[in-house]
Amino acid sequence: MKKNSSLLIGLIIVIVAVAGGYAIFHKSNKTTGTSSTKSSVAPVNNAVFTTKNNSSIGQYLVAANGMALYTYGGDSSGASNVSGSLLSSWPAYQDTGSTTNLPAGVSTIKRTDNGQTQYTYNGMPLYFFTSDSAGQVTGDGVSNFSVAKPAATSSTKATTTAPSSSSTQPATSSSGNGY
Q: Which of 23, 46, 123, 158 has the most beta carbons within 10 angstroms of its beta carbon?
């Protein structure tokens, strides 16, 4: 009886090892929770952000912390117009490290409210939405904010707008919430 138990345990270990190896090394073409349509936008993966797919909105930009990034319709290229209570719900994506050797299309601006450095993509300042959790995109279309999307890889090359040294509409507060 003891020999049969040992044989059964050994067989179970082999099955678990084979199944685990298959799960780790198997590359599936199936995508979960993503759109099945092909996009003309190349995935982005750099130190500032990556792209994710969502079945209803397509590709969008995500910060390294897993949070979706947004742009504000009231901003202009190279200048943030988000301030006060709006900034508390939509904190700026602020750079806390080096701003050298940024990827194409990524730049920074200096916020006039607190002097901190905020990331931009193709000149447009980037924000988080405090009601989101990592992996969520609930702020698209809320308060004139839109989920940030990568630029198409065809036709024209992305341009980066240098930050302006003076802004006519200063932002007035910072959330300080670590986004």
A: 123
